[in-house]
Structure to design on (841 residues):
């Protein structure tokens, strides 16, 4: 498989009053044209990993790594200006809540057109045509109307589809989706995910799917990294997640209530301090 | 008289005359004493609004609500709050940021007219699995799961018979969710509580409840026992859809 | 650090306090530690403490009687013998007058700082929590007060009540409360809808208890910050009234009145007006610095531990 992105020994550090806090501790993985899931609980460093790839860690946070190579080019050596052209054009990111990602005072159409023209030399009419095409691609029934609408007039699912349309217009090689469906209802989640899946496949993109939802990731992704306390504790095939070996992964799975397998009590995760200290597992794709 | 709660033709409205919005449309259901009843639906289906109307937090309602044989009027008195208590969704928002665990619990106990406050606080903390070390901590010194335990302790302080649970674990990690759900099951068995649990998560409701109402757009489309639901014996299409979506997450 | 002090530090910074008293002191101590790390705020606090000390010890610190006139010795320059900051047009020692004036300044500041925020807090929280027509009436009254320029309104009040320090304080307070009311109301509106207020309502708590025990503690910290930031304005307003002859009356050594007197000699004897001006400037700045620091410590939105 061709490797799109290779991350080696990634650390994200935050200086605090009581010394340095490591949010991500030596994470390595590579991404091909696949759907890679990153799961973990809050504070596991999964979102930080996604943001660190795009160098979206706010000061005073620091990113350190041997390399973050996008098709052989080390992103760490790029200037902020060069990074800006990587963001969006080569790697896009979809966040959890579309309400916070869209500008409330601009119409949806204006924002998509602007996003397109930021990375492509195109006339307004061309960009508009492209935007309409993209909105259709994310299964929005009446794209003309949606183009003229403001973000607050959109439902959550609609907003997230618009975000995906916006992020995919410049044809990036990699899409990072950080909990893209957590704010949505289950029925809408399915739609949004299948749209994202279709587009990623059609375009031969790599997808990094960050989520806290083990069932979702095991159904949606090809490969899964399980993170705990800033480290990768286990890497496995998504469809074999239920055969996971690490006690943390097993514990997480055991703690989920299951619709079809009722039991009187849920398993409670006993956290072993040793999990924290064990080195990150390297992924082999 | 084994009904803990009976709701009949309940309508709930928000807003004023100019733009009135009906959040719940003629909802009816009964909850037996000691049972656990679920309210499932997607966001905006009106499931939480029923709890708000019940507790008096949404004052614009019409219909009949009966709690432990007492019909509810517009005002709720102390005895109502001694019978019915609620646990809120977000433990980060339901604790006063400037009050320690001790302050929260002692004020609640005082309001309900108890005098042996020290002993009761210790017993409550023990009940929800927090040691005495937590007593004088402030919310910012607690994790999400610990906060929710404090919120549960507060709800239990008046020794209620009915506990309303408004998505009590949706803001928590799954491993913490398991702890809280186990705790709630234990408390229900121990104190003989009646639960009404609102959730968007069918797996959680099926784990906790005996029976559930499925809501959509403010209406109850179906009331179904969990066994029937597991067996796929749904009467309404929407219930089957919801079921399908929560088992097969990727459409 | 002695072992006693370090054990006190450990007691105060413990993550697991064992008594109500310890929990309360630990919260205070944490605020103090974070204020202490802000050097500008500490500088402001130092100046204010110095001011309070000077005011308290005025009779011992002042080299001369602030009221004794010595016309043969009038308008002495800075550094004149026996008069470090010179003398004014009636030969009174400026340094002594500044030292005694600190008392008046503190008196005004303390009274206004007590009256205005408390009135504002009451009006704002009741208005915000009650809503409906109570809110409407109270906020329109607030708007009427806000519609006048502050000093002009204060002037009108003093003109009606008669000149003097007490009336000046009253006038400034009457014009200072509306911004506090607005702020308290805005905070109340956001707090009112929160789950923890719903939760205490479900325990059967009445509006009075909710406002005083649950809403006030959250409003007060931002009010304190606002008051310290407004102190400068209050001192200036008091000085302004003094300057216009409507505040403290001669021969009282109020700083604004001193500037007013010195104004006539500004070109030839600049220090007479400048020294009290510098005093007002320093104290205003000190309150502003402290207010800025307190904002960082007391902001309830900041939940970092």
């Amino acid at each position: 498989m061709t490797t799109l992105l290779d991350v080696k020994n990634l650390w994200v550090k935050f200086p605090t009053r009581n010394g340095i806090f490591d949010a991500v501790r030596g994470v390595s993985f590579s991404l091909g044209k696949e759907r890679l899931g990153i799961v973990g609980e809050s504070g596991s460093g999964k979102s930080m990993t996604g943001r660190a790839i795009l160098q979206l860690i706010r000061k005073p946070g620091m990113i350190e790594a041997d390399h973050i190579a996008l098709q052989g080019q080390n992103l760490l050596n790029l200037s902020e200006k060069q990074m800006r052209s990587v963001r969006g054009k080569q790697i896009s990111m979809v966040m959890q809540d579309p309400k916070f990602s869209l500008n409330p005072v601009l119409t949806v159409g204006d924002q998509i057109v602007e996003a397109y023209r930021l990375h492509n030399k195109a006339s307004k009419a061309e960009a508009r045509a492209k935007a309409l095409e993209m909105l259709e691609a994310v299964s929005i029934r009446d794209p003309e109307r949606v183009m003229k609408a403001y973000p607050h007039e959109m439902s959550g699912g609609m907003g997230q589809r618009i975000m995906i349309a916006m992020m995919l217009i410049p044809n990036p090689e990699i899409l990072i989706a950080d909990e893209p469906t957590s704010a949505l209802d289950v029925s809408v989640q399915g739609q949004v995910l299948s749209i994202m899946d279709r587009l990623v496949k059609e375009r031969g993109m790599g997808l990094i799917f960050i989520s806290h939802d083990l069932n979702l990731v095991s159904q949606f992704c090809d490969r899964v990294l399980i993170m705990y306390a800033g480290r990768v504790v286990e890497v496995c095939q998504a469809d074999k997640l239920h055969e996971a070996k690490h006690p943390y992964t097993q514990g997480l799975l055991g703690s989920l209530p299951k619709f079809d397998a009722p039991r009187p009590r849920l398993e409670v995760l006993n956290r072993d301090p040793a999990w924290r200290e064990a080195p990150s597992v390297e992924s082999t794709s | 008289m084994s009904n803990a709660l009976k709701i009949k033709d309940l309508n709930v409205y928000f807003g004023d005359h100019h733009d009135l919005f009906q959040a719940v449309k003629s909802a009816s259901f009964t909850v037996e004493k000691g049972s656990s009843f679920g309210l499932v639906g997607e966001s905006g289906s009106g499931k939480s609004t029923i709890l708000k109307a019940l507790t008096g937090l949404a004052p614009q309602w019409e219909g009949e609500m009966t709690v432990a044989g007492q019909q509810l009027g517009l005002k709720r008195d102390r005895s109502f709050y001694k019978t019915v208590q609620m646990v809120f969704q977000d433990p980060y928002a339901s604790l006063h940021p400037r009050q320690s665990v001790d302050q929260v619990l002692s004020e609640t106990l005082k309001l309900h007219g108890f005098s042996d406050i020290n002993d009761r606080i210790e017993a409550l903390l023990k009940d929800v699995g927090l040691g005495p070390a937590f007593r004088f901590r402030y919310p910012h010194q607690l994790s999400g799961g610990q906060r929710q335990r404090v919120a549960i302790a507060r709800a239990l302080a008046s020794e209620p018979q009915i506990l309303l649970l408004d998505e009590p674990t949706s803001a928590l990690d799954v491993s913490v969710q398991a702890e809280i759900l186990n705790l709630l099951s234990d408390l229900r068995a121990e104190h003989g509580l009646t639960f009404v649990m609102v959730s968007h998560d069918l797996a959680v409701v099926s784990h906790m409840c005996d029976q559930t109402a499925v809501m959509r757009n403010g209406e109850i489309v179906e009331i179904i026992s969990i066994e029937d639901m597991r067996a796929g014996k749904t009467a309404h299409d929407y219930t089957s859809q919801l079921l399908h979506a929560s088992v097969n997450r990727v459409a | 650090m002695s072992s006693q002090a370090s054990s006190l530090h450990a007691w105060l910074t413990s993550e697991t306090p064992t008594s109500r008293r310890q929990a309360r002191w630990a919260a205070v101590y944490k605020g103090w530690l974070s204020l202490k790390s802000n050097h500008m705020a500490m500088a402001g606090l130092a100046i204010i403490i110095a001011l309070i000390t000077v005011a308290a010890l005025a009779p011992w610190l002042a080299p001369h009687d602030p009221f004794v006139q010595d016309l043969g010795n009038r308008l002495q320059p800075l550094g004149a013998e026996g008069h470090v900051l010179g003398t004014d047009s009636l030969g009174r020692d400026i340094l002594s007058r500044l030292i005694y004036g600190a008392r008046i300044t503190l008196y005004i500041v303390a009274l206004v700082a007590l009256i205005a925020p408390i009135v504002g807090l009451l009006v704002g929280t009741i208005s915000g929590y009650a809503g409906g027509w109570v809110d409407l009436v109270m906020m329109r009254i607030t708007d009427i007060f806000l519609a006048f320029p502050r000093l002009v309104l204060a002037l009108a009040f003093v003109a009606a009540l008669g000149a003097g320090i007490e009336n000046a304080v009253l006038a400034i307070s009457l014009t200072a409360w509306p911004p506090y009311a607005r702020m308290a109301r805005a905070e109340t509106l956001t707090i009112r809808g929160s789950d923890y207020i719903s939760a205490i309502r479900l325990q059967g708590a009445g509006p009075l208890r909710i406002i005083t025990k649950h809403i006030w503690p959250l409003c007060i910290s931002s009010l304190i910050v606002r008051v310290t930031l407004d102190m400068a304005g209050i001192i200036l307003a008091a000085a302004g009234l003094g300057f216009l002859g409507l505040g403290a009356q001669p021969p009282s050594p109020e700083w604004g009145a001193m500037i007013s007197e010195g104004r006539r000699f500004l070109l030839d004897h600049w220090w007479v007006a400048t020294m009290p001006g510098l005093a007002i400037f320093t104290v205003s700045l000190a309150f502003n610095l402290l207010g800025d620091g307190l904002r960082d410590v007391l902001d309830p939105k900041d939940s970092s531990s």
